[in-house]
Design a protein that fits this description.
The structure holds two protein chains of two kinds.
Chain A lengths: L1 H42 L15 H11 L10 H18 L6 E6 L2 E5 L7 H22 L3 H32 L4 H7 L24 H14 L11 H4 L9 H26 L17 H17 L5 H22 L1 H30 L5 H31 L1
Antiparallel strand pairs in A: 1-2
Helix pairs in contact in A: 1-2, 1-9, 1-12, 2-9, 3-4, 3-9, 4-5, 5-7, 5-13, 7-9, 7-13, 9-12, 10-11
Chain B lengths: L1 H23 L3 H21 L3 H26 L11 H25 L11 H13 L3 H23 L3
Classes of the chains: A mainly alpha, B mainly alpha.
Chain lengths: ~400, ~170
């Protein structure tokens, strides 16, 4: 086994990793839509999806079948090349952007050490920005190619918005780069390790490199710019349904619409991962390394959750629910018990904290969508250019001044 | 080596295809998209030479920012399909021989110098980024600052031109 891995590992391992990542991300996308509908519904005192499967858990599956089976009409007068190419470009770039994100520290399986992510590039941050820079074309082409005034307006708004906010997004990261002195996402996370757990993350900045200078300004700027970059509420003017029907994807149906949808959710995951890596210590635990008991936190959370799902599921109204929910709970309990054992426990620490943080950021995204009203378009552009950009430049100057002062 | 060579020829073919398509397309948006293909293929070629930073910047600045503006302006003006005219006599009798002559000169220059071209300096990504910034801010600091000054002047000029009507 280890001989084969040593010889052909460079070829086999990336293929396996890509397959796992695509599967995990697409499933995550599907259940993110479920979570979004559920959370928004509960904030607005509704039930959300609850007809298809227990608690609506099979709703994403039903949606997927609907997307595949629906008719895919093409409006007349479209620019065929742009119209067909745009959804593929959006989805492709969104999935590619996940390739450079490190989900955990390096792992060793069967004597083969590899990075916990697909590609370990030295310039991973720049590669990520290069991919997001190209992401505008998917939306712009969809808007222009559909031969519809609503689509065109949506596409134009979206491109203008993405160009404007990309500046603030890139500049808000410079503070972190100055502290880390490196463009590799893996090294940026490693630089945030310290004896104080979460106090050494860049958001607080008590690590060796940070030296007590908080990156909270950069953090806030990055998050606001990231929401605009992914076209989410309150900056989702590209698909403002009260004005533009559905914006750039008005004329798309069936699987092509689903590709835009999956692309949007995937880029949400990518941006949340980047946010976690840059400001919240990536895969690092929020507790100091001298507290070994926190290593059992995944089990301590999963087992009671599983027990609750089992006992709650046994009382569910439908028979299907009384089968599925206890089964799901049993899976949770087994998983929690498995994570308790020694080699798996060590292996799972990084990814557990990483996905916990990313999940929290995604929940925040959804929470905002249910809470905030949409910006007006001129307010959006004014805010980006007149407030966000100067503030992120000020953060760069402040951080550089602090580093100069400390080096003396 | 052969794998690198295959990637080089694929990228080079894509770049040439994009450049030719840029001229032959009749719709401005399709031309702009062909130009993006050229930019991205060039970034791939830079990557092949080990210049990872330049490759990333090529995509971010040219592939992203500059070309998005092109596409944006073309969409905003709603430019339609351009009209084709017949070849003018000047193009037939003056242009084609001149183009052939230029192509011949370039081909001759490449044929003469092939074999004694220096190989591209392969370097690690981080060293090249660090070296690049050190060079920019020490040896080439005056040209670098002058360039940024030039860009500032250009921005001011654009603002003045846009404001003139009011």
């Amino acid at each position: 086994m280890s001989e084969i891995l040593a010889k052909y590992g460079f070829l086999i391992v990336p293929i396996i990793k890509v397959a796992i990542l695509v599967f995990v991300v697409l499933t995550l996308d599907a259940y993110l839509t479920w979570l979004e509908r559920k959370v928004i519904a509960h904030i607005q005192a509704r039930w959300g999806p609850h007809r298809v499967g227990p608690h609506g858990l099979l709703q994403p599956l039903a949606d997927g079948i609907k997307f595949i089976l629906k008719e895919d009409p093409m409006p007349s007068g479209v620019d065929k090349k742009a119209y067909f190419f745009a959804p593929f470009l959006t989805l492709m770039l969104a999935l590619t952007s996940l390739a450079v994100i490190p989900f955990g520290p390096d792992i060793t399986i069967f004597g083969y050490t590899t990075n916990f992510g697909i590609a370990d590039v030295n310039l991973s941050l720049l590669v990520l920005f290069a991919i997001t820079a190209l992401g505008v074309y998917g939306i712009a082409l969809a808007g222009w190619g559909s031969n519809s005034k609503y689509s065109l307006l949506g596409g134009l708004r979206s491109s203008a918005q993405m160009i404007s906010y990309e500046l603030a997004l890139t500049l808000s990261v410079v503070g972190v780069l100055l502290i880390a002195g490196d463009l590799s996402l893996k090294h940026i996370v490693e630089k945030q390790a310290g004896d104080f757990g979460l106090l050494s993350w860049n958001i607080v900045g008590l690590s060796k490199g940070g030296g007590g200078f908080t990156q909270i300004i950069g953090c806030v700027c990055f998050f606001i710019a990231a929401i605009a970059e992914t076209n989410r509420v309150p900056f989702d003017l590209a698909e403002a349904e009260s004005e533009l029907v559905a914006g750039f994807h008005t004329e798309y149906a069936s699987m092509k619409f689903a590709m835009f949808f999956i692309g949007e959710y995937t880029s949400m995951i990518a941006v949340s991962s980047l946010f976690t890596i840059l400001f919240f210590g990536g895969w690092l635990s929020p507790f100091p390394a001298s507290w070994p008991l926190t290593h059992y936190l995944p089990s301590i959370i999963l087992v009671p959750l599983g027990l609750w799902v089992v006992f709650d599921g046994l009382r569910y109204e439908t028979i299907l629910g009384r089968i599925i929910l206890p089964g799901l709970g049993a899976v949770f309990i087994l998983l929690g018990a498995g994570l308790f054992l020694s080699p798996v426990n060590e292996l799972i620490q990084g990814p557990f904290w990483f996905f916990a943080k990313v999940g929290a950021v995604l929940f925040f995204y959804i929470w905002m969508r249910a809470t905030l009203p949409r910006f007006r378009y001129d307010q959006l552009m004014g805010f980006g250019w007149k407030f966000l950009l100067p503030v992120s430049i000020a953060n760069v100057v402040l951080t550089s001044a602090f580093i100069m002062w400390r080096m003396k | 080596m052969s794998g690198v060579l295959v990637i080089f020829f694929v990228l080079a073919a894509l770049a040439v295809f994009g450049a030719v398509s840029l001229i032959l397309q009749s719709h401005p948006i399709h031309s702009a998209l062909s130009l993006i293909l050229v930019m991205v293929s060039l970034a791939g070629l830079y990557l092949l030479m080990g210049a990872e930073f330049i490759a990333a910047v090529q995509i971010i600045v040219y592939g992203g920012a500059v070309m998005v503006l092109f596409v944006f302006v073309i969409m905003l003006l709603n430019a339609g399909v351009e009209e084709r005219t017949n070849f003018s006599k000047l193009a037939t009798f003056g242009g084609i021989p001149l183009a052939l002559a230029l192509g011949g000169i370039i081909a001759a220059a490449i044929a003469r110098s092939s074999g004694n071209l220096p190989p591209p300096a392969a370097s690690g990504a981080m060293t090249s980024t660090r070296e690049l910034s050190k060079l920019l801010f020490s040896e080439f600091v005056y040209p670098f600052e002058l360039t940024s000054f030039l860009i500032l002047v250009a921005i001011l000029g654009a603002i003045v031109l846009a404001q003139r009507e009011n």
